[in-house]
Design a protein that fits this description.
Chain B: This is Amino acid ABC transporter ATP-binding protein. The complex is a heterotrimer of chains A (250), B (311) and C (400). By secondary structure, chain A is mainly alpha-helical. Chain A contains 11 helices and no strands.
């Protein structure tokens, strides 16, 4: 095990310990409070809020993945080719929209609660996944595609057997970006009444309780870093499996 | 037998292949040679319908290639390309087994065929079967590419500059291997190249293409002796003509009885090699041996006569 | 792929004029927007539920007919395969008229002298604008405009919007009523927003490029620094803002003079520091990637001619890496314009103030007052910097 992996594991264990028994960490956070304010968030179970946060992130990312990969397949088939360059520039332009703005604009249309957050996360998550899936599906090496057609693979066989497996690491990289953005934007979602860790931070800000702010910030920050690391590791594994790493080095 | 009849391909205003007709007999190696943009690759790709012709027909063993879906046609025809196009995410064994799997062969049969081909291309199956293409050298990747094209025992093999990316020594080895394998299976081969040397080495017939038109379709000897146009002449290279002619035949074809001094050469070498040896060692004749036995000699005067333009 | 499309379809194209696939989708969108979605929402005051009105209910009859006609004409042009320039012009005209008639609807629906009634654009309006903007975008993609032409189009659009604002076309629209109530605050927050986004970018560029050069030259620095910057980049902004509050509050309380120069737990300081931290990774890593990408033979030739390390750096490597570094700056600017919104949550100001106030008061017009300028600013920054990157990049010679 590398030192990095040991540190990550230790942090994960610490995080789990804090979520399962937050009160035992009260002495650590007590110095940050003033006028006898509670050192540990007391308006709900931190564990429940964390799980709800992760669940929203997961659902949104899953939905984005299914729809974005589906769309990217459509526009890279012969009958959808006409939409390829337009959809590519739309995905590009779309990503200049700040995720917060997407969330803010979703509220007038969808109202308050978890749903608008979920839908905003879903919509925003489409963009990086779609863009990466397009890159992956259109960058299959020419000779490989040529050989696949020359051997008599049908369009469907090429998609499933060649294009998607080769694009998988790039698609996963898009999923990682989308998941990290979703996790971050879900935090803001608490301002529109979604049940996420943002409410811990915002409760801390409104009551000037730095301990709350720190708790919320640490949990979200650690989750984001661990999630991103885990997905990066998976990405590297898949790239190696797909025989792409060595090929690139050669 | 492949019969190409009036084959034409036009992209908007440009005609890439212009009314080409030629017949490739069974078991022949037909090399299509030409500069880039001559239409040679497009012509070959119309045989397995990777490019759909604008006009004309291709018949294989009398059967029009358009009477079945293109992907089914392609599974009957081997296809090897420059840069090999191996699937980077599949092992060597899975790569070679691609077309048999598409054709629905039983697993044991595929496995046996994969091992047979690997051995044939001097790659130890136990060692290479489960490697990824990225773990092979360039020459090995190219061999696997050709093995994959031959996997489903096709009667016809199409090759697009298959040796283009190899260095000269590996290249000439790969060409020898191809000739040996062709002899063994009797496969009809259509090979595209820009290299006249390669065309003369490999081809039993050479088709010379320029600007979409077929300039000449003949045996190598005929092409060297009687080039149909200046362009064909240029492609052969006037300075190289006598040597190209000599390279077509082996010493065995022209060995004569008699003795000669010095080291012997092998009967399987080309006349060109024998000629070079005469000049280099300053001998008028050199002994010839076959399987270690001296069987006669070749003489410089005979070689010089053979190098002259056939009448 | 195009070669594979067999000739029969080309022949068909010659006989029957084919419809544009995108145009069909647009037509469906337009039909749905016109018949099933409200053009405007009219409310007696800013927070109560409103009445949804179609175009026919939102405009005087004659104007409504004109608008219907223009929409129909635009859709038909979108459906046909006419030259891209026509499609661009027609969709531009339709979007412009939608905007003008939206202002007209607000004037029509607001009783004279009433200051509490609110008329805001409905889903139908947004979908229509989106649909025709899509045709325009498609036409722009197909026209393959050069960088200067793209900036020209941007200026044209900006001028059109400015002219409509100046002429007071939208004065009765809810978002401008919100603006009218807080004009001074709007511009103050705009200044803060721009200062946050550009200030953090400037500091990050001044520090990030030399750090990038150091990483390029010393692989040990690169191995130590890039993962840390990468990690910082993944931490959600509000968490990072929050995490900075405690140390800064401690600094303000314990270091003499710190609070005098503006350092405190909440406010602009943590926002600025966090935005700076986010900016470092793209700039440092793009500097490294850009320098790494300089052709080894070029560096070798430069050294072979007797240039010193610094001469190679300033004369060869940095100029060649510049487009990549500029791309890093583009990423940072667009990202920071978005992230600066969140600074409002920790008292850092910016357009986020209106967004979060609006959310707090369930006043959606106020949310728009914050969100629309943020999006516009990010969009303009992206277009301008993309164009700049293209201008400074070496022209690619089209391969034969």
């Amino acid at each position: 095990m590398t030192p990095g992996a040991i540190v990550r594991l230790a942090i994960l264990i610490l995080l789990l310990a804090f979520l399962l028994a937050p009160q035992s960490f009260a002495p650590v956070f007590a110095p940050l409070t003033r006028f006898g304010a509670p050192p540990i968030y007391n308006q709900g179970s931190l564990l429940d809020i964390t799980l709800s946060h992760l669940w929203i992130t997961f659902l949104a990312t899953l939905a984005s993945t299914i729809v974005a990969v589906g769309l990217s397949i459509l526009v890279t088939r012969p009958f959808g080719k006409e939409f390829l360059s337009l959809s590519r520039s739309l995905a590009n332009v779309g990503q200049t929209f700040p995720p917060v703005a997407v969330l803010a604009l979703a509220v007038p249309v969808l109202g308050f609660g978890t749903e608008p957050t979920l839908i905003a996360l879903f919509l925003y998550g489409l963009l990086p996944i779609f863009e990466n899936a397009l890159t992956g599906l259109t960058n299959v090496p020419r000779d490989v595609d040529e050989a696949a057609r020359g051997m008599g693979m049908t369009g469907w066989q090429r998609l499933v057997g060649v294009e998607l497996p080769l694009a998988l690491p790039v698609i996963l990289s898009g999923i990682r970006v989308a998941a990290v953005i979703s996790l971050a934007t879900a935090t803001i979602g608490s301002t529109v009444a979604a049940r996420t860790l943002g409410e811990v931070i915002i409760a801390g800000l409104t009551t000037s309780n730095t301990a709350f702010v720190l708790q919320g910030g640490l949990i979200v920050g650690i989750l984001a870093v661990l999630l991103s690391d885990a997905l990066s590791a998976l990405e590297r594994l898949l790239a190696r499996r797909a025989g792409l790493t060595r090929r690139a080095e050669a | 037998m492949i019969e190409i009849d009036g084959l034409t391909k036009t992209y908007e205003a440009t005609t890439v292949v212009d009314h080409v007709s030629l017949t490739i007999e069974k078991g022949e190696i037909c090399v299509i040679v030409g500069t880039s943009g001559s239409g040679k690759t497009t012509l070959m790709r119309m045989i397995n319908r990777l490019v759909e012709p604008t006009a004309g027909t291709v018949r294989i063993d009398g059967r029009d290639t358009r009477d079945r879906p293109a992907h089914q046609l392609r599974r009957q025809i081997g296809y090897a390309i420059q840069g090999h196009g191996l699937f980077p995410h599949r092992t060597v064994g899975q790569n070679i087994g691609t077309v048999p799997r598409l054709l629905g062969w039983e697993k044991p049969r595929i496995a046996a065929r994969v091992d047979e081909l690997l051995s044939l291309f001097q790659l130890d199956p136990a060692l290479y079967r489960d490697r990824l293409p990225s773990e092979l050298s360039g020459g090995q990747q190219q061999r696997v590419g050709v093995a994959r094209a031959l996997a489903a025992e096709p009667d016809i093999l199409l090759m697009d500059e298959p040796f283009g990316a190899l260095d000269p020594i590996i290249r000439s080895k790969a060409q020898d291997d191809l000739l040996a394998i062709q002899k063994r299976f009797g496969t009809t081969i259509v090979l595209v190249t820009h290299d006249m040397e390669e065309a003369i080495t490999l081809g039993s017939k050479i088709a010379v293409m320029d600007k979409g038109k077929l300039l000449q379709y003949a045996t190598p000897a005929e092409i060297i002796a009687r080039p149909a146009t200046d362009f064909v002449n240029q492609l052969i290279g006037t300075g190289d003509r006598p040597f190209r002619l000599l390279s077509l035949e082996t010493v065995l074809d022209h060995v004569e009885p008699g003795e000669a001094a010095g080291d012997a050469i092998d009967a399987s070498l080309s006349l060109r090699d024998a000629y070079a040896e005469c000049l280099w060692s300053g001998r008028d004749a050199i002994p010839v041996e076959e399987a270690g036995q001296r069987i006669g000699r070749v003489t410089l005067s005979r070689l010089t006569a053979l190098a002259a333009r056939p009448q | 792929m195009a070669q594979l499309l067999s000739s029969p379809s080309d022949l068909q194209a010659a006989r029957v004029p084919r419809l544009d696939k995108l145009g069909i989708i647009i037509a469906v969108l337009v039909l749905a927007a016109v018949f099933f979605l409200p053009f405007v929402i009219s409310r007696p005051n800013r927070i109560v539920a409103g009445m949804a009105l179609p175009i026919s209910g939102a405009l005087p009859a004659l104007q409504a007919i004109v608008l219907y006609g223009l929409i129909a004409l635009g859709s038909v042009i979108g459906l046909l395969r006419v030259p891209s320039l026509w499609r661009l012009a027609s969709s531009f005209v339709v979007v412009l008229s939608l905007c003008l008639f939206l202002g007209g609807a607000a004037n029509f629906l607001t009783p004279e002298g009433n200051t509490v009634a609110r008329v805001s654009p409905g889903a139908g309006f947004w979908v229509l604008v989106f649909a025709f903007a899509l045709i325009a975008a498609d036409a722009l993609v197909r026209l393959r405009l050069g960088p200067l032409a793209r900036i020209g189009v941007l200026l044209l659009v900006a001028a059109a919007i400015a002219a409509m604002l100046w002429a007071g076309v939208w004065q009765n629209l809810s978002i401008l009523k919100e603006y009218a109530n807080r004009g001074a605050a709007f511009w103050a927050e705009a200044r803060t927003h721009v200062a946050l986004a550009f200030g953090s970018l400037a500091v990050a560029t001044v520090i990030g490029v030399p750090v990038g050069i150091l990483c390029y030259r010393r692989s040990s620095v690169r191995a130590a620094l890039l993962p840390v910057l990468n990690m910082v980049q993944t931490i959600p902004s509000i968490a990072l803002f929050g995490l900075l509050i405690a140390p800064l509050a401690w600094l303000a309380a314990n270091v003499p003079g710190a609070s005098a120069v503006g350092i405190s737990g909440i406010g602009t300081a943590p926002a600025m520091i966090a935005l700076f931290a986010y900016s470092l990774l793209p700039i440092v890593s793009n500097t490294v990637i850009g320098l790494d990408g300089v052709d080894a033979s070029v560096k070798d030739a430069a050294r072979g001619m007797g240039m010193t390390d610094n001469q190679v750096l300033f004369g060869v490597e940095l100029p060649l890496a510049f487009p990549v570094i500029l791309t890093g700056i583009r990423i940072v600017l667009v990202q920071n314009i978005g992230l600066a919104t969140i600074a409002a949550l920790i008292g850092g100001g910016g357009f986020g103030v209106f967004v979060f106030q609006g959310i707090g008061q369930t006043a959606m017009d106020l949310v728009l007052l914050g969100a629309v300028p943020t999006v516009a600013l990010a969009f303009v920054a992206a277009v301008v910097l993309d164009a700049l990157v293209e201008l400074v990049s070496p022209k690619r010679v089209p391969s034969a």
